[in-house]
Design goal:
Layout: H1 2-15, H2 20-70, H3 88-94, H4 102-105, E1 128-130, E2 133-135, E3 148-150, H5 159-162, E4 180-184, H6 200-203, E5 215-220, E6 225-229, H7 230-235, H8 248-252
Length: 256
Amino acid sequence: MNNRFKQHERTQIAGRRFTLIELLVVIAIIAILAAMLMPALNQARARGRRASCKSNMKNLGTYESMYSTNYEGWVLPIETGSGETDRWGALLAKGGFFGGPSAKTVPQVDRPENYPAVMNCPSQMKPILRSGVEYPRVYLGIGQTYHYAKNPNCGSTVASMSANYPVMKQGRCKKPSTMMSLMDYVRPNGNSSYFAAGDSTHMGHPNFIGRHEGDFNILYLDAHCGGITTQWLKQDGGGHTNPTDANVEFWTGGMR
């Protein structure tokens, strides 16, 4: 009796086991579901990175506004000298906007305060290669590593630049809500701390495309954030030098 019961129990257990074919079918269904969900997950991650980037830019916009307040209404320029530590990011650090002792240590590559997180776009996943060295994060001492490029119309005190881009006060811009201050862009070659309209080294480069699914995040002079497409920007042509351009306000804000 016991032997027959045990044999019946073993038969029932064996009957509940998956066959190889059933197991393969289950695995195939899971794989199909995962493949269907993956694009949605990737899009969600991309939206999260873009939102984080905009948050960084809004913080930078706050720092720029504070800079103008501290310096009698002058807009944060792209540079105040020809040295790497005179770029706009280093100027904010020297002004104490990033916190820490950056004012004295900007040239020092081994100081953590010279790699502020707010200067990094999370969608810039590849390290930036400059002079044979990879920079996974923005280093304030080298403008070529910047993830955010400034509008040169914000001004410069360097003689070679100031003739075309003199420093400006906030009141000179008629429409600060339309004038680009920063754009999340890394120049394929050269200095990434500023972006000039119509520059063939930018728009003519095959890698000229927005990091956020083809779009660029933009910080405007009034400190609000928006976005533009690669196509829109390429159609803009030489906006900052051509007053007949339809998008001239993007570059100049209708300067007086």
